[in-house]
Amino acid sequence: MIGKDILGLRDLDAADIHRILDTATRFRAVSERAIKKVPTLRGRTVVTAFFENSTRTRLSFDLAAKRLSADVLGFSASTSSTRKGETLMDTARNLDALKPDAVIIRHGAAGAPHMLARAFPWSVINAGDGINEHPTQGLLDLLTMRDHLGDLRGRRVAIVGDVFHSRVARSDIFGLTKLGARVLVAGPGTMCPPELAELGVELRHTIDEVIEDVDVVMMLRIQRERLGRAMMASSREYARFYGLDLDRLRRARPDVLVMHPGPINRGVELAPEVADGERSVILEQVTNGLAVRMALLYLLLGRGAGEGGDA
Amino acid sequence: MPERVLLRGGRVVCPASGRDGIADVRVADGRVVAVGEGVEADGARVVDCRGLVVAPGFVDLAAELCDPGDPSREDLQSGSEAAAAGGFTTVLASPATDPVVDTAAVAGDVLARAGRLPGARVAQAGALTVGLAGRELAEIGLMVEAGCSALSDGGRPVADSLVLRRALEYARPFGLPVLLRPADPALEAEGVMHEGPAALRAGLRGIPPEAEEIGVARVLGLVRRTGARVHLTHVTTARSLAMLAAAREEGLPVTASTPARHLLLEDSIVEHSGYDSRYRLLPPLRPAADRRALVEAVRSGLLDAVISDHVPLTPVHKELEFEHAAPGAVGLETALRAVLGALDGDPVAAVRALAVGPAAVLGRRAAVEPGAVADLVVFDPDTVGVVGRPARGRSANEPLMGLALPGRVVATLVGGRFVVGPIPN
Known about the structure:
Number of domains of chain A: 2
Distance between the termini of chain A: 22 Å
Shape of chain B: globular
CATH topology of the largest domain in chain A: Rossmann fold
CATH superfamily of the largest domain in chain A: Aspartate/ornithine carbamoyltransferase
Radius of gyration of chain B: 20 Å
CATH class of chain B: Alpha Beta
Number of strands of chain A: 9
Distance between the termini of chain B: 21 Å
CATH architecture of the largest domain in chain A: 3-Layer(aba) Sandwich
Structural class of chain B: alpha/beta
Shape of chain A: globular
CATH superfamily of chain B: Metal-dependent hydrolases
Strand order of the largest sheet of chain A: 7-6-5-8-9
Order of helices and strands of chain A: HEHEHHEHEHEHEEEHHEHHH
CATH topology of chain B: TIM Barrel
Largest interface: A-B, 26 and 20 residues
Oligomer: heterodimer
CATH class of the largest domain in chain A: Alpha Beta
Number of helices of chain A: 12
Structural class of chain A: alpha/beta
Number of domains of chain B: 1
């Protein structure tokens, strides 16, 4: 059931996910017109509250809301500076006084969007919370895969890298398993602990152990600046065991999809010629991100406004 | 003034003397003077206790009363009242205050003020190390002279094993029990809930149970080495219990307790509550298998005591994202209800875990028998009610709020004086 908020793919079922993806497919057409705007959310107010740095996600939400004619206001604040001063709840009370219809939040702490969703009447969309979830990224990944592969049941998807600390991976895993895909994960032992099997994925170690077997390979960004103590040895060693280069890509199925949530560390998890190569659908992911975010705003705020006529 | 009271017709539960049956209890001059059937009132005020349990007052071993230092969270007055509301007649105050109770001067100040409290008695634990920092020994002997009843670092594990060894060696001949929360601090530093499937689903960093279990193994080894009398507070995993059982078998002088709420709540509640920071606790809530093992260990007596683990925190500390909120919860007012809820309402096991066991850790006897100090609790073990906001304590970080639990404290007597109740006849 799609309720007031979108907090994670953990809370959605397969029917919900397909409904969102179907809606996104229709909204994709809006962005291909000369006049890329529909009046669906006219008079509605959408706030983007980003407590962590973001370029593409914030731009994408911004544009999604604007293409639906919502009023958008946004702010960025680093978690550290707000922690020194105003609490998240106080910031949210101030937002509440402005009577928004939806708040899109990215925050460094898992559960921050859930806290706001419990406390306030407006819709909350999680744009990434700690290492928990990044549901819109998960949905755009699913849409990209569905476009190319159709039904995902029985398809095999490898997620490679820091799976444990990746909110993208977590949303992908929840979404893919719900749609019946098989998920293989590979990465360093500190980032792919055996307990990940609890999420219904199959555990491997190096990229060589997954690359030949899969329809999709999702390469995660390695974020050295965010890693805790003693998580990895060096970028060189990482690339050797977990990076995707052309040699490895040649051993994959010829129609394999190479995906990445961005931004890419070229030469670490992804060789440049692979990132820019013909199997890469990374820029399609970005386009689909806009459509998915329009769909979610529409489904949360625009129901009753007449989907068919507007989209 | 101590009253002359006859508690008539209650079920007297006194595991220390083996009594469990309907009896009258007469109290005079601050002491129990008669226990039995058909005790004459002899001019005493008669309180009808039919349908209620009359038991030795509860003793808590782990409560932060935040005095001196932070009256917005709690102080001796409010802590004493909250304890009495929960049926406690003695609370051992944690040295985790500001300033820390690590000198005779601070201990003496607290104990002087503790002489005139409206509720439960307050005993004081002195710090094991200066500033609870785990580096230098505190003036243990001088704090013993000042009247401290136990030693602890207020739940902060002494990280350096050499310092811990020396502290145990130094403390042993002074005769006070040393209370320690077993933990490997580095291993628990990055996590915010129990590491396992629930944390994985919730996307929160985990604290591996081994952080506690390595702590248990380390403390037990040093107890074996030093012969110090140690009480492990906050024992919360099945493997910790197994190590404890082996140590008992071996004859080591070690006792142990667990927080009351850990008998009732499980780690999955973090996700299901939408990351409610009331469930941010240290040690964290555990999965069902551990919780069941804890309940069984209270039943069997392997765990000597259940603690309130009372850590009052205001919205300043709690109205935050789950991982940024301070760990801890209040518990003095609800410990009995948590224990009864977890033990299917068994009042005998509850009285053992809340009164007899913890009193013995402090070298005292909790009993309802002639000559005993009249520190007593009268409670209704059966009536189920929804836990509300704490009535007496200053802070509302109560994770049991909203749960329907049995147990209601009807009266608490400290030195023969009603500090809570009784209901009018």
